[in-house]
Amino acid sequence: MSEIPPCPACGCGYAYADRELLVCPECAHEWSATASAEVLEADIYRDANGNVLTDGDTITVVKDLKLKGSSDVVKVGTRVKNIKLVAGDHDIDCKIDGIGAVKLKSQFVKKA
Predict the structure, then answer these.
(1) Residues linked to residue 100 through DSSP beta bridges, in sequence order
(2) Cα–Cα distance between 7 and 29 in angstroms, integer?
(3) Which residues, 6 or more positions from 26, have their beta carbon under 8 angstroms from its beta carbon?
(4) Phi, psi torsion values for 111, nearest 5 degrees
(5) DSSP state, residue 74
(6) Residue 96: predicted pLDDT
(7) What pLDDT, in 10s, does the model give residues 72-112?
(8) pTM for this model (two decimals)
(9) pLDDT at position 44
(10) pLDDT, tens digit, for every residue of 37-79?
């Protein structure tokens, strides 16, 4: 019998297989057995050099970034401390001194 992974939604270890889906009895979350490995790989965020990013890292901007709706520009070499990774197109939430809260794409930063 194959090892059934824990529920990705709540972490419950009592998930069971129902035809081609895996089901969590605690939160009723259903997911595909083949998509389990893809979901784990999708949760890994990498910088411009391929280094893995984690919450709380310090990063450096590698390209001048114009901020939409503002005349401000984030310059090359700007260091940003204590980042937070989120799902979506702009996957880094952070605060930049002098600018404020900003969302960045991981492809335009490198781990410091």
Answers:
(1) 96
(2) 7
(3) 7, 10, 12, 14
(4) -70, 130
(5) E
(6) 95
(7) 999 999 999 999 999 888 999 999 999 999 999 999 999 99
(8) 0.63
(9) 85
(10) 555 555 789 999 999 999 999 999 999 999 999 999 999 999 9
**Closest to 90 in 3D by CA, of 111, 66, 108:** 108
Task: Kindly provide the b/e burial profile for residues 22-52, where b requires at least 16 CB atoms within 10 angstroms of the residue's own CB.
Answer: bbbeeeeeebeeeeeeeeeeeeebebbeeee
End-to-end CA distance of the chain, in Å? 44
Closest C-alpha to 62, from 78, 50, 51, 46: 78
Going from the C-alpha of 7 to that of each of 24, 38, 41, 44, the distances in angstroms are 6, 14, 15, 18
- Report the amino acid identity of residue 83: I
Amino acid in position 35: A
Element (H, E) at 35: helix 35-42
Q: What is the DSSP string of 36-63?
A: HHHHHHHT-EE-TTSPEE-TT--EEE-S
